[in-house]
Write a structure and sequence with these properties.
single chain; 70 residues
């Protein structure tokens, strides 16, 4: 009997350079979590108006630290 487990969860969060508007962060988040890109972008803009400093810093940090998908 073999009890080896095979997981196919090798998804990494990356920036999407194909569908990017500014830096590809929202597109990468949408692709990683399988959400619509427009919904993620609208949520980012709403949170930018609601919490401008936190959202701005988080977006800049994500743009710097996330690798680009090739």
């Amino acid at each position: 009997m073999s009890y080896e487990r095979h997981y196919s969860v090798h998804k990494t969060l990356t920036k999407d350079v194909v569908h990017k508007k500014v830096s590809g962060v929202c597109g990468g988040i949408a692709k990683h979590y399988e959400l619509p890109r427009l919904g993620v972008r609208i949520a980012a803009v709403v949170s930018l108006f609601t919490f401008p400093v936190v959202t701005g810093v988080a977006y800049i940090v994500a743009a710097i630290l996330l690798p680009t998908r090739k």
